[in-house]
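Dear H.,

Thanks for agreeing to be a second pair of eyes. The structure we're designing against is below in token form, covering all 378 positions.
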């Protein structure tokens, strides 16, 4: 069969290419970024036994994955806005969701592929049907390509999605502002103490400070606010000092050790609006094209997105390998399982976002975690 064309070198697209490679099937990934080092690849991810870890096993990368695990990173704690610890669960080594840096995970996937698999600096501008399952791609640099099998792994604002669906992401009413503290144990000891050894959830109705201690005494924080898109548009994010002051003002009365995660941020604060596709997003079978990851099922962040994207990639790769002479059968098998899996995960993610920030915060999350931990011990 001719090479599979993948748009996007995120974790899902890379996993698909790797699983295809394991089965002797060639793939080409077109990625808009100029190189693998073009930007920092986000923070830590907990890799789940029933999705992300299965995908890495299908990719033959379990040992490489184990080598990049951040030991101790599965600890979690819930605080109220005054800094009182309501729940503190250490990493005792029995958890099934080891933490790794997204950049490290992406690197082992990239390194597992043949050198020319990824075509960097290829920003997709248009995609058009040529009929008979073929599609033509045009890139911002003026180049073009055609393919018999196109996979949109191009994220929330996927251009490939338009071939299958009219759906576009909608704003949930909540946004995150991303900040970092470095060398935190020495330079920001109170914030480092509040963060603890793993994940932090400091919550109140309509707002929260989510964080994670990363390797090298890095504190990575997402400041959550339930506010309109217009409210955030009124902030000049090019002015870091003014942005931090404006966001911190919404946390008046919170413990200084927590607000320091905002005010002492050492990188320019970045706005991350939380947009989602419909929970039940699906499409009719269109010859020669499909989607995976956020392009297919964008949902609120709940620890599932990267895991599902990799699982999608692995399942699609296995389906293509199982039906190399009947790609439509492969895509039908993949999508038949994708749709209910995605819908269930999206519904859970919306429920989790509500649990984190509703009028019962932070106590709803404490109840949720307590039930999870008791179930794990049972």
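And this is the sequence the design step returned. I haven't edited it by hand at all.
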């Amino acid at each position: 069969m001719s090479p599979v064309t993948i748009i996007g070198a995120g974790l899902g697209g890379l996993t698909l290419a790797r699983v295809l490679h394991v089965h002797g099937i060639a793939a080409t990934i077109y990625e808009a970024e100029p190189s693998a080092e073009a930007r920092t690849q986000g923070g830590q991810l907990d890799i789940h036994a029933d999705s992300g870890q299965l995908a890495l096993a299908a990719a033959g990368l379990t040992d490489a994955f184990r080598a990049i695990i951040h030991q101790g990173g599965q600890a979690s704690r819930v605080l109220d806005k005054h800094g009182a610890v309501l729940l503190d669960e250490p990493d005792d080594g029995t958890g099934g969701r080891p933490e790794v840096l997204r950049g490290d995970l992406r690197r082992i996937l990239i390194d597992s592929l043949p050198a020319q698999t990824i075509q960097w600096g290829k920003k997709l501008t248009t995609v058009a049907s040529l009929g008979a399952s073929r599609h033509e791609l045009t890139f911002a640099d003026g180049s073009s390509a055609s393919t018999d099998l196109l996979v949109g792994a191009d994220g929330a604002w996927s251009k490939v999605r338009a071939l299958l669906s009219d759906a576009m992401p909608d704003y949930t009413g909540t946004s995150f502002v991303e900040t970092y503290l470095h060398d935190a144990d020495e330079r920001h000891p109170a914030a480092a103490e509040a963060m603890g050894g793993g994940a932090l959830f400091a919550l109140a109705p309509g707002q929260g400070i989510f964080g994670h201690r990363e390797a090298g005494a890095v504190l990575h924080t997402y400041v959550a606010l339930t506010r309109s898109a217009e409210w955030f548009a009124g902030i000049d994010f090019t002015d870091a000092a003014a942005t931090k002051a404006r966001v911190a003002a919404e946390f008046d009365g919170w413990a200084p050790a927590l607000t320091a995660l905002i005010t002492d941020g050492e990188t320019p604060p970045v706005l991350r609006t939380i947009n989602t596709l419909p929970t039940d997003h699906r499409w009719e079978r269109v010859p020669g094209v499909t989607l995976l990851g956020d392009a297919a099922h964008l949902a609120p962040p709940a620890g599932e997105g990267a895991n599902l994207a990799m699982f999608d990639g692995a399942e699609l790769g296995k389906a293509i390998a199982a039906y190399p002479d009947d790609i439509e059968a492969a895509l039908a098998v993949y999508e038949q399982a994708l749709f209910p899996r995605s819908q269930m995960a999206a519904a859970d993610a919306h429920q989790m976002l509500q649990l984190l920030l509703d009028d019962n915060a932070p106590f709803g999350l404490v109840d949720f975690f307590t039930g999870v931990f008791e179930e794990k011990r049972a």
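Two observations from my side: The mean pLDDT is 92. Residues 327-357 form the longest helix (31 residues).

Warmly,
E.
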